Amino acid sequence: MTEVKAEQLYNDTLKNIIYPLTGNKSTYMNDLDRVGRKLLGIKFRGVFPSDKIPKLNDLKPYCILNLDKSTESGSHWVSVAKIHGKDKSITYDSFGRSNKKIIPSLSKSGNGTIIDTDRDVEQKIEETDCGARSLSWLYVLDKYGVDVAKLI
Questions:
Q1: What is the DSSP letter of 124?
Q2: What is the pTM of this model?
Q3: Strand order in the sheet with 77-82
Q4: Which of 66, 79, 87, 92 stands the most exposed, by the fewest C-beta atoms within 10 Å?
């Protein structure tokens, strides 16, 4: 699959599946948790602050993290997914940043080697739909696999 096709799957999912459930504005922990469980079922581990990163496994491989700690108000959502059968996880940030820069503690979370998706930017700075974008990426990964999700 090409990067263009992967991006189209992501954008179609965002517009046709995620936005109808979350809207295209800021989302909160409870909203993301409810929609994540609805779309991904038991595979969705939940939504967490950056100081409470869960250990993912093959049965519950997906989560969404906020860059802020549990004592802070919340700033930006990103996705993390364990790669099935491997000691690796992959992260998605709609601003295309390295996981090492935005969540340095992720490498010590017990989720194996952490890799990033393609480092291009999907979200404009004035947009506030990072939670919906994180869900869209997880949905595409779940339906089409890691190789497609890496291209987004």
A1: -
A2: 0.95
A3: 44-49, 62-66, 77-82, 88-92, 113-116
A4: 87
